[in-house]
């Protein structure tokens, strides 16, 4: 995947893919990739054919979080065979670039890379393709919404004011692109002390739900700050794989945005 292609006119929607859902956030670090990987795994466990496209060009986390990192094959030098991990079909910009290399691309190059990952990857038949977007309101999110007949977007935020401020901008972008927002997810909502049982609201309380109500957008659910979630993500075995309460939380989230 490189940036030297100019985006073509017309649709970038892969043929066999029923729905494309973008997962966005206003800020980085709010857990967008954690949520994306776990939702993908949860959907796969529910028998869906799921793809996950890591379009977070500036910080692709899917290779690490899904425990898959090798270069995808391209037998004819054009089509790209996606990788498989935990029952999910995977493509990440990170598979194609050395891990330490910074991506310094301008808009048209980003769009070229996104287009390649959508149209040259053999996604096959999928019920849903989740796209882990870069944070913010940049070219990748805009191109995806304008060119790929996206079904809708999910926005992840923490309850903290500075995160919500930026989440609102992302919501505004989706609305101006006429992309339906399927719902908001509050991540890092609470912290439950394993020693004393006290529950702390480290980033504030309920802000995302309130925002969803104000904007008349579905509130999909709240996820706590959870040490095992972080450890599982770092180990490449998303928490949604097991049978913990967190896995159940992701399973019920996954049921909420796909009919
Ligand atoms: P983003 O994609 O928004 O940049 P990440 O998913 O990479 O965010 O998450 C940022 C960091 O926070 C990662 O180290 C991840 O493991 C951790 N993290 C995300 N969600 C949670 C959570 N609910 N509990 C604990 N750690 C989390």
TrEMBL record:
Keyword set includes Iron-sulfur: yes
GO BP field: iron-sulfur cluster assembly
Domain of life: Bacteria
Keyword Metal-binding: yes
Gene Ontology molecular function, alphabetical: 4 iron, 4 sulfur cluster binding; ATP binding; ATP hydrolysis activity; ATP-dependent FeS chaperone activity; metal ion binding
Entry keywords, A to Z: ATP-binding, Hydrolase, Iron, Iron-sulfur, Metal-binding, Nucleotide-binding
Positions of ATP binding: 26-33
Quaternary structure note: Homodimer.
Membership in a protein family: Belongs to the Mrp/NBP35 ATP-binding proteins family. In the C-terminal section; belongs to the Mrp/NBP35 ATP-binding proteins family.
Known role: Binds and transfers iron-sulfur (Fe-S) clusters to target apoproteins. Can hydrolyze ATP.
Protein name: Iron-sulfur cluster carrier protein
Portion of the full-length sequence here: 104 to 362 of 366
């Amino acid at each position: 995947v490189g940036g030297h292609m100019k985006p073509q006119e017309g649709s970038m929607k892969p043929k066999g893919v029923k729905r494309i859902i973008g997962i966005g956030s206003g800020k980085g670090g709010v857990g967008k990739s954690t949520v994306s990987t776990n939702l993908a795994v949860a959907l796969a466990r529910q028998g869906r054919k799921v793809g996950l496209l890591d379009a977070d060009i500036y910080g692709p986390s899917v290779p690490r979080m899904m425990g898959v990192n090798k270069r995808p094959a391209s037998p004819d030098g054009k089509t790209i065979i996606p990788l498989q991990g935990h029952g999910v079909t995977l493509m990440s910009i990170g598979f194609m670039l050395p891990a330490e290399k910074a991506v310094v691309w301008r808009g048209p190059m980003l769009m070229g890379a996104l287009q390649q990952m959508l149209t040259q990857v053999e996604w096959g038949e999928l019920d849903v393709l989740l796209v882990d977007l870069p944070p913010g309101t940049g070219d990748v999110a805009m191109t995806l919404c304008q060119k790929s007949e996206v079904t809708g977007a999910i926005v992840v935020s923490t309850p903290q004011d500075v995160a919500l401020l930026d989440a609102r901008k992302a919501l505004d972008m989706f609305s101006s692109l006429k992309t339906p927002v399927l719902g908001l997810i509050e991540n890092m909502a609470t912290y439950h002390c394993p020693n004393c049982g006290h529950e702390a609201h480290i980033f504030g309380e309920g802000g995302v739900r309130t925002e969803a109500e104000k904007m008349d957008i579905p509130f999909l659910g709240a996820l706590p700050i959870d040490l095992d979630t972080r450890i599982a993500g770092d180990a490449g075995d998303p928490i949604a794989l097991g049978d913990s309460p967190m896995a159940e939380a992701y399973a019920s989230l996954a049921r909420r945005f796909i009919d």
